Amino acid sequence: MFNLKLSKNTKDIQWSFISLAIASFANLLLRIILGKKLGPSGLGLYTIVFTIYMFGMQFAGFGIGSSLIRYIATYHDNLPKTKELFSCGILVSIISGSVMGVLLYLLSGIISNQFFHNPQLTNLLRLTAFCFPFIAVQKVVVGTLNGLKEMKLYAIVNIVQNAAVMIVSYFLVILLKMDVMGAVIGLVIPTILVGLFSLIFTKNFFVQPNKLMSPIFKEISWFGFYVVLANSIGMINTQVDSLLIGHFMNETQVGYYAVAAIFVQGVTLLPQAIQAVTTPSIAIYYGKGEFIKIRQLIKKTVFKTYGIIVFISFILIIFGKFLITLLFTDEFLPAYLPLLVLLIGHTIYAAYVSLGGCLSSIGKVSIVFKLSAICAGLNILLNIGLIPRFGLLGAASATSISLIFTTLINLYYLMRYTTEKQIKPNNSFKLLKHY
């Protein structure tokens, strides 16, 4: 009587959501463990290391994973081309990941002493540097799986990564009592192992690189260059506040702010899951010149997710203090007011997150970079101006203002470039088509 068969897109969204939900739960559980065991200061120190790791990861992967989502989605029915794309991506990621690891290792002392005024960070950052080549490889694998819309395998890699980090960190911090160093080791070792493990899912895509593949190498590298700049600058809108709190204040204040940031991440959980599906879908529609479907997907995605986002935010506003005390301790209650301010910006921004990869999917990666640069500049200026005067509330206000501005300006260009008159299908694939 009823057709209970789920569509491919629905199943893909489910797997993407499961992956992100488990990742967020693992991240929350780990922060709870670290917060209770290490206190605000220890949690803040780990948050600084993890934030630098997140920034470094963007450059380590050089945006190749995101590049492969687009190109492989476009050539998903061309197996030889897919293999060549993947093989080139692996080569670039190993090089970029190694370079980023060496740079972080060499600059760890300067970052720790000159910017954060905390010598304890030096060895933690040097240890973190070793995992960059492996996370870069993993990003290529998950980008390939995403482009092929193999969301079940995509989810497995991400689930194993986050679960392993949580388990190993718990063992080292709680059972072996290794404190912050144990938490960082718990991040690095699983990252290395899962990076190697992930290659199992794409072992049949390896081909030996040759000179004839140089057009592909150049194309995905240039695309990846813009993506990594856009993504890294985009991260500034959500992460620079923690770094500047560490610079202007101390790691204890970073610990309070980290708790607020953990809760607001739940607001963007569903949109992030949906984005993992909308990005390759839009790339496929774009390649076929199906402009109407792109517009329909955009409207349907925003309207169906926004109601849920508002509901989640409302729950956090009412039960925020209770949840902070329950999951952490009373010592972390200073996180509540920054949480309220952050919710304003993240609730509005979350509506755009579900379509965050749309402009890149239709070849407007340079526009994404320019918009991200403008928004990041605004965020940095606001944080520098507000944190010294208003502390955590200043940081939260700066982030919310910049996120609202980011949403509005990106939605404007998103609507502008997804009309039939503006989109010129396949222009960005000239090099690959010629090849």
Observed structural traits:
435 residues, 82% helix, globular
What is this structure, in a nutshell?
The protein has 435 residues and is mainly α. The chain has 16 helices and no strands. Helix 1 packs across helix 4, helix 3 runs antiparallel to helix 4 and helix 8 crosses helix 9.
Secondary structure layout:
Elements lengths: L7 H54 L2 H11 L4 H37 L5 H9 L2 H16 L3 H25 L3 H19 L16 H35 L2 H15 L3 H20 L2 H37 L8 H18 L4 H4 L3 H26 L1 H26 L12 H5 L1
Helix pairs in contact: 1-3, 1-4, 1-5, 1-6, 1-7, 1-8, 1-9, 1-10, 2-3, 2-5, 2-8, 2-10, 3-4, 3-5, 3-8, 5-6, 5-7, 6-7, 8-9, 8-14, 8-15, 9-12, 10-11, 11-12, 12-15, 14-15
Folded structure, characterized:
With 435 residues, this protein is mostly helical. The protein has one domain (10-434). It is built from 16 helices and no strands. It is globular. 54% of the residues are buried.
